[in-house]
Amino acid sequence: MSKSVCHQEDKYVSLLHDLSYEAANMCVQCGYCLPACPTYESMGNEAQSPRGRINLVKMAAEGKIDLQQDLAEPIDLCLGCRACEVACPVNVPYGHIYESAREVIALQQKEEQKKLSAGVKVRDQVLNKLFPHQNRLRFFGNATWLYQKTGVNKVAQKLKLVNKVSEPMGQFEKILPSVESPSKRYKFGDAFPSRGPKKMTIAFFSGCIMDAVMSKINRLTIELLQSVGCEVHIPKGQNCCGALHSHQGSMEEAKNLAKANIKAFESSTADYFINNAGGCGAMLREYDHLFKDDAEWQARAKSFVEKTRDITEVLVELGPLPFKKEWGGIITYQDSCHLRNVQGVSEQPRELLRSVPGAKVVEMEGSDRCCASGGIYNLIHFEESMKILDEKMVNVKATNAQTIVTTNPGCLLQMKLGVDRNGLEHARALHIVEVLAEACDIQ
């Protein structure tokens, strides 16, 4: 092996060592994380467990195994749900170790122009050319509305046109909720007054997928906030939170997106910065960690983090909601991993659901376990994701629920696909905002 090749390899090994070795050494290999890990449970392989992956990261950081040949696949097959952090008795920061490994693997692939699969190339193009651009995302959302409105989607589904491009994308296209008319979209820079006495000023984070194809849920979120006395502002200049980029190792792009959001919100006089997506909220709440080596931006990020809240936290704080309708049937709740494991929010959604008149809330076994959406995991690793999802749906069936509720767009689509795959014709999957708005007769 040439000295130049050795030097390049040493560079990446050294970077991984600097980023993750100290944290990885905190792991005592006790195994408490194993029962909490969905990929270990489904694959039965130590390399697909948190402690197994941490051990591989340590070995790679010591130069004992190859980053691409030995570490890349186990890291790529991790869902990033971070349930292991909650289970860990010594508080190993698995999320930091995981994303450090992602970053170094992606950097080596990019700089050495490693041969990438067509799927990875498409993923990178989408992450870099679509998600950082709100106008492009809205154009995509409006085009999707037209696609559905004209009935072209029905023809495409009948002919399985999307499936021919990508089977996973075809499956998800089939269960995509109806996109609301562009005429009902809020505008960035808009402000909405409270209904009744003003209790609080809110700045709303619209997200990317939520803004593009689930804008109705965003609109209902704004109206629910108004109903409990919030004046709601939609700051200009906000962007994708950067979570998808961070989870794929594109840390510089994630930081650029974070800076744009901090700039957009920091001039706000709002009491809280509110979001309605568990994955986005987790990323927003860790912006200070993202800038741990940049004193100026870390201070600005910390101020941002201190005001960031999930919609359910604020609705509980300012409630009760002005319910007007009785709910029929059983509701079961599926936790968003990042809302529960990273943000520490688990009781508030349940409290809100229990407050809905007429609703019977039945706790699902394993409701705190990942549904295997994992950002874009279910598109990249479809078969692995579906194995975990189908097990999840066994627990859903046991509740006899007519309504499956979650708090994250990826989880919502995953549960909708689970309903479709398992023929649960009596059941529907909804975002918690949709349930609360329907019970308040907000349409």
Automatic annotation (TrEMBL):
Cofactor: binding details: Binds 2 [4Fe-4S] clusters.
Keyword Electron transport applies: yes
InterPro entries per record: 4Fe4S_Fe-S-bd, 4Fe4S_Fe_S_CS, Cys_rich_dom, Glc_ox_4Fe-4S, Helical_ferredxn
Domain 4Fe-4S ferredoxin-type: 17-48, 68-98
EC identifiers of the protein: 1.1.99.14
Any Pfam family: CCG
Protein name: Glycolate oxidase iron-sulfur subunit
Lineage: Bacteria, Bacillati, Bacillota, Bacilli, Bacillales
